[in-house]
Amino acid sequence: MKLESEGQSRAETSRSSERRPRVRRNVTAAIAQDICADRYPSGSPLPRENDLCELYGVSRTVIRESLKVLESKGLVRGKPRVGTTVCDRYEWNILDAEVLDWMGPYIKDFDLLGCILEARRTIEPAAAEYAAERASAQEIADLDKAWRQMRDSAGEPESFTDADVMFHTVLLTASHNQVFRRLSSAIHAALKYALHASNIAVENREDAVLVHGELVEALRMRDKTGARECANRMLDLAVRDLAAAEKVIGRTK
After folding, report:
1. Which of 31-40, 164-173, 220-229 has the highest average model confidence (pLDDT)?
2. Same domain, 62 and 116
3. Same domain, 34 and 143
4. Cα–Cα nearest to 204, from 174, 232, 247, 244
5. Do 130 and 209 sit in the same domain of this protein?
6. Banded model confidence at residue 126, pLDDT cuts 50, 70, 90
7. Which CATH number fits the domain that encloses residue 127?
8. How many helices (H) and strands (E) would you count in the chain?
């Protein structure tokens, strides 16, 4: 009986430890989404720990762990004897995948899609030109593979977006510019969010497939001018698709 009791105790402890991370993630997301919705505006204090426990129906330990996560992502700041305050939006790590997910239906309020497009306008044409000169045969092959996956999944937005993100990630890497490579890692989540929003908002992706294929060919021919022109044409399409995406987001909101 003792062994059975000990076994049950260990099983209950295991189940409890399995539940806790999920509970913490759910509570973290709930608080974050309330911040994004301006229930807790920038500069305002969050409720006290005990009040948060009552609001979200969890223990103080879970609340403290959630606040640590939110602080690590720039949404809140805790100070002794002051409490936890919501940070200004410009301090948030908006390139973090979880933060993007929490912003969700409020993404339009941040003009994030437009900001990502501006960043791409600055980076990608130059990266394409450098890639035409510096890309290895393997990198061009990887771009070609990503393009073929885009072409073959043009009717499947999720798969198309995965291939699209891969294409642009490889392109920045193929520039052999160390700063561009680092930027590729930094903006990966935001780029995926932006491309997905655009890809689900448009019905016809043939123009995008065509210009991506032409960029691969320009790199293969080591045509720097052609590569830059293709990148700019891709971004012109992105402007069109962004307008469609913002209409969809506005309707969803």
Report:
1. 220-229
2. no
3. no
4. 244
5. yes
6. very high
7. 1.20.120.530
8. 11, 2
**What is the DSSP track for 188-251?**
HHHHHHHHHHHHHH-S--HHHHHHHHHHHHHHHTT-HHHHHHHHHHHHHHHHHHHHHHHHHHHH
Q: How confident is the model at residue 9 (pLDDT cuts 50, 70, 90)?
A: very low
The pair of structure tokens assigned to 66 is: 């959630």
Whether 171 and 131 have beta carbons less than 8 Å apart is answered as: yes
Give the pairing type, strands 83-86 and 76-79: antiparallel
What's 44's domain CATH number? 1.10.10.10
Could you tell me if 221 and 132 lie in one domain?
yes
pLDDT at 47: 95
Q: Are residues 212 and 144 in the same domain?
A: yes
Residue 52 in tokens? 């948060």
Question: Sign of the CA dihedral 214, 219, 222, 227?
Answer: positive
Q: What is the pTM of this model?
A: 0.73
Alpha-carbon gap, residue 39 to 9, rounded angstroms: 41
Q: Is the pLDDT of residue 46 over 90?
A: yes
How many separate domains does the chain show?
2
CB 199 within 8 A of CB 164: yes
**Where in the sequence is the domain holding 171, given as residue range(s)?**
111-251
Q: How confident is the model at residue 77 (pLDDT cuts 50, 70, 90)?
A: very high
Cα–Cα distance for residue pair 59/119, rounded to 1 Å: 42
DSSP assignment of 7-56 equals: HHHHHHHHHHHHHHHHHHHHHHHHHHHHHHTTSS-TTPBPPPHHHHHHHH
Beta carbons of 224 and 133 less than 8 angstroms apart: yes
